Amino acid sequence: MRDILDIIALLDPEQETAFVRYLEGLNRRSDTKNIALFKLLRKGQTRDLDLKLYGKANANALYVLANRLQHRLIDFVAAQSFSKETSADMNCLKLLLASRIFFEQKKFKLGFKTLKRALVAAEEIEAYSILNEIYQTYIQYAHLQDQLALKELLHRADHNRAQYLQELQVTTFYAQFRAQGMQDLGADLNQQFETAMDASQLRLDKNLSYKSLYQLLSLAVETAEQQQAFYQILGLTKNILELIKLKTGLQGRYALYRMRSLHLAALSLFRNKQLEACQEALDLLANDLKTYTSYRSLLSDKFNLLQSLTHFYSNRPFEAIALLEKQNNEDLHARLTLCMFHFHQGEFDQVAKLLRNLNHSDAWYEKKMGWSWVVQKNIIEILLLVERDKLDLVLLRLRAFKRRYKGLLQEKGQERVVAFLKIVDIYYQDPNSIKDPSFIKKVETELTGKNPLEEDIFVMSFYAWLKSKMTADSLYETTLALVRTHGN
Q: Are 417 and 433 in contact (CB under 8 A)?
């Protein structure tokens, strides 16, 4: 049932209505239960579904019905996606085919007019493979027109072929870089990319398509996330963002590449504490979401989460919290971020309430969300226990955390998380230690080894908790001061 709920969460209201019509068209009997089950799940009802549908307990029938509904949902989403993804390409191909028919029928004027429309449409969506076919047709009939000289046509065709090969090179680079296991944890990420791009004879310039820019940026962000090295891709992020700004709007899936790239750029800028630049990228994304409404269901949750974080670290906490409270309760990133917001505000009862709703095991969350999310959740839970002065529970949770995650964190190059919790342990057992010069030195040595400009905004937020204890200032004001000092 979880998979069905995940798919339903991807549908906007218009798509939900369309799916019901889709089921009605497929149903041969009027008493089919699939629509009723879909409507119940859409409302978030998951208990006693067999009783509501059949009037009695019937787990087997419900299982079969749910399985069929899931297959129908997958077919529907695939059909919708295919329609969106290929409509622009198909338009180009239909125009190209029509022009060839006109040429074969010796309707040359109409053929060139139609071929020109295909050319303009294909250039707009950077469809280099289709453009190859268009230029071949132009060259084949070049002797019958005088608008484009053969030399000019050959030059354009060669230029397009080079762009097509460049896009192929980016895809190859992407696959090879990933196949190498995201490279060595100790190596400079920016240098890794420069070396690998030089080896692949790739240049970051305006000739790269939106798809290529997205592939490069997604690879960089994913690697930076694993290595906690967002500062090392800051230059690459800014360069790609500038190239995106230079490009004109695109249709269909090409617009989706642009929007996904804007989100990744905004995320990278946020993690680097570049809040003004992050907001600029988010504004561009917001405009695109208004234009391409069919993609809102894919990107709106990610947009809202990042926008709320930008609000929060820009001293607009109430806007940040209000935005996330509207988010789907199934969005675990939003739930944990809300915990962090309320924790910074000193609203510990609200934090506890939110954490109680995250009631699955760590193993379950690790499988669904990844180890990094689970580590953040554990840290918030431990700090909440410290704030509430639950001595036995603090010590118990610290030991359990070290036992489960110390080895993993060391393997991932995240020893500072272990060091942070060790210092939390020292502070909690002896609060006066924060005034001890040796304790302060330990904090500076083990937690602030990086240049503050290079520090990730989330890591800085956890360090801010310790600093707020040293200075007796509020956690939120301490965090904002650190971000302002070492951000943009």
A: no
CA distance 162 to 155: 11
pLDDT at 410: 83
Q: What is the pTM of this model?
A: 0.75
The whole-number pLDDT of residue 149 equals 81
pLDDT at 386: 93
Tokens of 175: 């696959």
Q: Where are the alpha helices (DSSP H) in 127-251?
A: 128-140, 150-179, 189-199, 210-227, 234-246
Round to whole Å and give the CA distance between 470 and 166: 54
* First-to-last C-alpha distance (Å) of the chain: 45
C-beta separation of 466 from 447 below 8 A: yes
Q: What pLDDT score was predicted for residue 249?
A: 60
Burial class (CB in 10 A: 0-12, 13-18, 19+), 221: buried
| Predicted local confidence at residue 100, as pLDDT | 92
Question: How far apart (Å, rounded) are the C-alpha atoms in residues 110 and 285?
Answer: 39
Amino acid, single-letter form, for residue 313 = Y
Helical packing angle, 234-246 and 210-227, nearest 10°: 160
Distance (Å, whole) CA 296 – CA 294: 6
Locate 257 and state its tokens. Answer: 């590449």
Which residues of the chain are under the pLDDT cut of 50? 183, 185
How many CB atoms are located within 10 Å of the residue 251 CB? Answer: 16
Apex 332 CA angle, 326 and 338, nearest 5: 55
Contact 189, 223 (CB under 8 A): yes
What are the sequence ranges of the domains in the chain? 2-148
In this structure, what DSSP letter does residue 473 have? -
Q: How far apart are CA 13 and CA 359, in angstroms?
A: 29
Per-residue tokens: 214? 């997205």
User: What's the pLDDT score for residue 252?
Assistant: 58
Q: Return the closest-CA partner of residue 183 out of 172, 171, 195.
A: 195
Nearest to 138 by CA among 155, 158, 153: 153
What is the DSSP-derived secondary structure letter of residue 451? -
Q: What integer pLDDT is reported at residue 285 of this predicted model? A: 95
Within 13 Å, how many C-alpha atoms sit on residue 123's CB side?
A: 12
Residue 467, φ and ψ in degrees, nearest 5? -65, -35
If DSSP codes are grouped into helix, strand and coil, which group holds residue 413? coil
Q: What would the pLDDT profile of 277-297 be if each residue is shown by its tens digit?
A: 999 999 999 999 998 887 887
